[in-house]
Amino acid sequence: MVSFLIHGSASCSKIDHGGEKKMFPAGMTRHKVCEIAIRVFRACTEMGIRTVAVYSEQDTGQMHRQKADEAYLIGRGLAPVAAYLHIPDIIKVAKENGVDAIHPGYGFLSESADFAQACADAGVRFVGPTPDTVRKMGDKVEARSLANGAGVPVVPGTDGPISCLQDAQAFAQTYGFPIIFKAAYGGGGRGMRVVREYEELEENYQRAYSEALTAFGNGALFVEKFIEKPRHIEVQILGDKYGNVIHLYERDCSIQRRHQKVVEIAPGFQLDPHLRDRLHSDAVNLAKQVGYENAGTVEFLVDKHGKHYFIEVNSRLQVEHTVTEEITDVDLVHAQLRVCEGRSLPELGLKQDKIRVNGCAIQCRVTTEDPARGFQPDTGRIELFPSSDLKPLCLQFSLLQTSHA
């Protein structure tokens, strides 16, 4: 592989006439986009791959543009989010500049089957699963069906997206409250509404539909029985093009607010050893059933009785991948790039019996919020940002002093 394009939260690679490697990340929004782009650039530099960045008109001064070997403007005249979602511009940059592969990082296009397919159609490698796998995992209803087929337990829920409020009412009558609405074609906590009594049903149905439509362009919802105070455990998986799949243990992401992860801990603490083994085996079996390749995360809920339920697969690199890297000494971005090149996991020395847990790691997310407005997201100018070496801490950021957060 020669070069990568990194679009905010995505990256891609390119081969030039000198046989030099190059990488381009493709995108997310603003600082979150920049942070993962810089992470991928670092891996590319270590591997001798040149990097290409794309940026919106509003992001000309962002750090990821400065860190790349090349950078190109996309989405002229568009807002940042729209620019980083503009697939034709990203593909155009990749083709015109000899980019060989695109790494989607995390963000809007990272789980877009259309984007993965556009890369394939353009002859550009997508650092992630195949378009078909991305599509199947992005459809939460189909993912549930595949989990069922693999013998993985799922939370009781509707067999497909509901078509009207009456479908939700019928489900509630069968299974009782509480229930939860979930976006059928998205995740990240958006389009999720918990309903605890009949009087709340219509209002939360409308809100969940509206949130899903705004976030994912599709308001389709499905309904599940809501599990009270569960643990949220996710298993990191890695597959290659030859059917090999391994797990790199689990992360506990139970500390959340507004359905958004706040603290991630690896490995999961105080997990029953038999439960841990079942989580790992279920994650690997599901991945093998769908022919999963590259990095991904299989997410589960664990109830107060220690019973686990599949909830979704994130077919991309997770924000919290760093804690897994810390405890396993496996560089997941390096592995992603090598798998994309066609290397097998055994070739990379990544065999299940060689993966060992080495200590514990905790990740905390820092966000800008206004306490006077109920801790709603806030923006402002960064006046002072000391970012000196804090080892053994790992600080990931894309901020510059005097930049806007």
Automatic annotation (TrEMBL):
<dbReference type="GO" id="GO:0046872">
    <property type="term" value="F:metal ion binding"/>
</dbReference>
<dbReference type="InterPro" id="IPR005479">
    <property type="entry name" value="CPAse_ATP-bd"/>
</dbReference>
<feature type="domain" description="ATP-grasp">
    <location>
        <begin position="144"/>
        <end position="341"/>
    </location>
</feature>
<dbReference type="InterPro" id="IPR011761">
    <property type="entry name" value="ATP-grasp"/>
</dbReference>
<protein>
    <submittedName>
        <fullName>Pyruvate carboxylase b</fullName>
    </submittedName>
</protein>
<dbReference type="GO" id="GO:0004736">
    <property type="term" value="F:pyruvate carboxylase activity"/>
</dbReference>
<dbReference type="Pfam" id="PF02786">
    <property type="entry name" value="CPSase_L_D2"/>
</dbReference>
<dbReference type="Pfam" id="PF00289">
    <property type="entry name" value="Biotin_carb_N"/>
</dbReference>
<keyword id="KW-0436">Ligase</keyword>
<dbReference type="InterPro" id="IPR016185">
    <property type="entry name" value="PreATP-grasp_dom_sf"/>
</dbReference>
<feature type="domain" description="Biotin carboxylation">
    <location>
        <begin position="24"/>
        <end position="405"/>
    </location>
</feature>
<keyword id="KW-0067">ATP-binding</keyword>
<dbReference type="InterPro" id="IPR005481">
    <property type="entry name" value="BC-like_N"/>
</dbReference>
<dbReference type="GO" id="GO:0005737">
    <property type="term" value="C:cytoplasm"/>
</dbReference>
<dbReference type="GO" id="GO:0005524">
    <property type="term" value="F:ATP binding"/>
</dbReference>
<dbReference type="GO" id="GO:0006094">
    <property type="term" value="P:gluconeogenesis"/>
</dbReference>
<dbReference type="InterPro" id="IPR013815">
    <property type="entry name" value="ATP_grasp_subdomain_1"/>
</dbReference>
<dbReference type="InterPro" id="IPR055268">
    <property type="entry name" value="PCB-like"/>
</dbReference>
<dbReference type="InterPro" id="IPR011764">
    <property type="entry name" value="Biotin_carboxylation_dom"/>
</dbReference>
<keyword id="KW-0547">Nucleotide-binding</keyword>
<keyword id="KW-0092">Biotin</keyword>
